[in-house]
Specification:
Shape: globular
Number of helices: 17
Bound molecules: zinc ion
CATH class of the largest domain: Mainly Alpha
CATH superfamily of the largest domain: Neutral Protease Domain 2
Strand order of the largest sheet: 4-7-2-1-11-14-13
């Protein structure tokens, strides 16, 4: 009885009152790209404790082995005496702490990968993606504590969504649990900072790097996007929100958090079409504050940081978000109805025209993101389909279905509101895949077994003309059968090298392989554009001889052109007025 009670206390609370973990983050010599971390643990009674560094960063579904960047790990007790420390797993250190109530763990983190999901430090700025920098105490992810940032002498600003502990201590922050800590990236340097208010929320923008942006334009346009997004859900859960923007040459997109995001964009992105793409990225990451950070499958929070967290619902988390990152730009006035439809047409043709779309169902694409989407190879186009684009089309499918069934009274917005209210606000939990399906069926009033069998767990092409029937959108199937070589070439030092081969293509039938160099055609030397020109002029059945070099061994193959039918659809607005279409594309 006593034992049972004791176990209950530990299971239910996890944290014993008074346990804290305080991190000190310094960067004495930024040019060597090392952050120095000291982690002070107090109130732990165990004789030994394990500390680990995550192997992945939530929102980016790849095991990245962040512990590869950790060096010089030491542990001391409150009096400065060194404690015995042993590495027990690739990302875990075990410390024999004995009776000491305070332990100080110190280590260096090499940070030289500037992306939204990794960390970076040089003389111009520091960026901390917490999961690659802060270790956690095993079995104690719920502990709260402080983070003290000690910036390099030349740095004057620290931007993070972590709450400031006290007004007069600008670089001391607090966190409520480990998920909270690593969900708040930290930008340290001399970044440009400005604020604006939208949907009743204070937004701060911290920009690293020069660029062709104008602050007032950004405030106006980002506010419009935020206000449209908040209308989708009817409520905005944050009081404060932070955008960290990195203006670089090679922009890499964004990563979502509960009350902040990091965006990595080309520094000249702020004009013309690429500015609209920037706003779409803003819309995408901001939408995630609801969809995936709060409306989420069980597996996506709280997290297991030691291994992959598999879910088959990324088609909802990423796909729905991708649908809205364009739809909301329409609602905010950046696209016309026909421009939006043109975007959708190109998404549909991208998906249906991909060989991998007939091989990998979107639920599998989601589950296998860790080993496939994030680890592509030369054969990926034959075997995979992105849950982003296929998911965005399925979102449109469901939106239209709900609008039609409700005669223009409700849409996907209302389903998302329902999920937010039921699972996040009321139950404060994630959901299973079958719960998601059940809610969707309840909301649409339809049995969705065949929808799931065909499009979620299957790879069928939707009948788009049926889907848009009565929506004021015409669909024309313009699939045509054309001669197709089936190999993609790249040019390397003037050589024509095969980079991809389509399954069941003429190139595959001829015995060609990725990495083959095509040297000659019918007795003539050729380069990449020569061979592409020849292939364009061939008809089905035409034959020719190719001279190939594979691993520096020369041989000839005879090649026979075959036809390929690539699915393709045209979408157009019909001329007559349509109430449902005007509601859908409002
Ligand atoms: Zn996303």
């Amino acid at each position: 009885m006593k034992l049972k009670a004791l176990v209950f206390v530990f299971l239910c609370c996890g944290t014993v009152y008074g346990q804290t973990v305080k991190y000190y983050l310094s960067m004495p010599k930024p040019q060597n790209h090392y952050f120095h971390v000291e982690m002070v643990l107090e109130g732990f009674n165990e004789k030994s404790i394990d500390v680990s560094l995550p192997v992945w960063s939530p929102g980016s579904y790849l095991v990245r082995e962040f512990s590869k960047n950790i060096n010089l790990v030491t542990a001391t007790d409150g009096s400065g005496k060194e404690l015995q420390l042993k590495k027990t797993k690739k990302n875990t250190w075990s410390i024999a702490k004995g009776k000491s109530s305070e332990i100080r763990i110190a280590y260096d983190v090499y940070a030289f990968e500037l992306s939204v999901r990794t960390s970076f430090l040089d003389l111009t700025h520091g960026f901390v993606s917490g999961s690659g920098v802060f270790m956690f105490v095993e079995d104690h992810l719920d502990i709260s504590g402080d983070v003290v940032v000690v910036p390099y002498d030349g740095f004057s600003e620290v931007s993070t969504a972590l709450p400031r502990k006290e007004r007069n201590k600008p670089f001391v922050f607090s966190y409520s649990d480990y998920d909270h800590l690593v969900d708040c990236p930290i930008e340290i340097g001399n970044q440009l900072i400005f604020d604006f208010k939208a949907s009743g929320v204070n937004h701060t923008v911290a920009i690293y790097g020069e660029g062709n942006f104008e602050i007032e334009t950004l405030k106006r346009d980002m506010s419009k996007v935020i206000e449209e997004e908040t209308k989708v859900f009817g409520q905005n859960p944050n009081k404060e929100y932070l955008f960290i923007i990195h203006n670089v040459v090679d922009g890499q997109g964004g990563l979502e958090h509960k009350n902040s995001t990091t965006l990595s964009v080309n520094r000249w992105t702020y004009s013309g079409n690429s500015y609209v793409k920037f706003l779409s990225l803003v819309a995408h990451e901001y939408f995630h504050l609801w969809n995936v950070k709060r409306i989420r499958p069980f597996e996506l929070g709280p997290f297991d940081y030691n291994k992959e967290n598999y879910t088959d619902l990324l088609w909802v988390m990423e796909g729905f978000t991708s649908y809205y990152d364009e739809l909301l730009l329409l609602r905010a006035g950046y696209y016309s109805q026909s421009e939006f439809l043109a975007k959708m047409e190109s998404s549909i043709n991208y998906v249906e025209g991909s060989v991998g779309a007939r091989v990998q169902p979107v639920a599998h694409a989601s589950y296998d993101a860790w080993i496939k989407a994030y680890r592509p190879n030369e054969n990926s186009s034959n075997t995979t389909m992105t849950y982003y684009t296929r998911g965005s089309i399925l979102a449109a499918f469901l939106d239209v279905k709900i609008i039609r069934n409700s005669k223009g009274e409700r849409g996907l917005d209302h389903f998302l509101q329902h999920m937010y209210e039921k699972f996040y606000v009321k139950a404060a939990r994630g959901f299973t895949s079958s719960e998601f399906k059940q809610e969707l069926e309840g909301f649409t009033g339809e049995n969705l077994d065949s929808f799931y069998a065909d499009y979620i767990d299957g790879t069928a092409i939707p009948t788009y003309s049926d889907l848009f029937e009565g929506m004021g959108v015409s669909v024309t199937d313009v699939t045509s059968t054309k001669p197709d070589f089936g190999a993609t070439l790249r040019s390397s030092g003037g050589k024509a090298i095969i980079s991809r081969i389509r399954t069941n293509s003429a190139a595959e039938d001829a015995g060609l392989s990725v990495n083959d160099e095509i040297i000659g055609c019918n007795g003539y030397r050729v380069n990449k554009s020569d061979i592409e020109g020849v292939m364009r002029s061939l008809r089905k059945g035409d034959e020719l001889d190719l001279l190939i070099s594979r691993d520096e061994i020369l041989f000839s193959v005879s090649f026979k052109m075959t036809n390929y039918a690539k699915p393709r659809f045209l979408l157009n607005l019909t001329n007559e007025e349509n109430k449902l279409r005007d509601y859908w594309l409002r």
